[in-house]
Amino acid sequence: MFKQNLVATVVVFILWSVIDFLVHGLMLQSVYQDTAALWRPENQMYPLLMSAVTLFFGFCVVIIYSALIAPKSLQAGFKYGLLLGLGIGVLTGVGSYAYMPIPLYLAGAWFAIYFVKLALAGVVAGYMVKEPATPVGATSY
Length: 141
What we know:
mainly alpha, 0% strand
């Protein structure tokens, strides 16, 4: 199961990285420029750290699914991702809006991005992480 978790984590990381590039790097670029006073200058950002955090969070999402969701299926993964996406989306979108002077549409975008990213991660986990095989003659409790 370790190999399934590892491969699912890599797929989630790649998927999220592509989404982040498209959404934050292209679609929301003008919004970030309009609110530039809120962010570090680009030359003071830490892209390697951002990638490490994305990889770690993807690993956590996959491992939680693997350890706590049963029975494992595409449908269970999708439901897990939707619920997690709803919670994390509200936390990042609405939560950030509550204490940062960001436009409401940026908060809505952050909510939507996390909702979609986590729903997709749930689908990846549900598709790739399967129940461990029970050895012949073994009893399950």
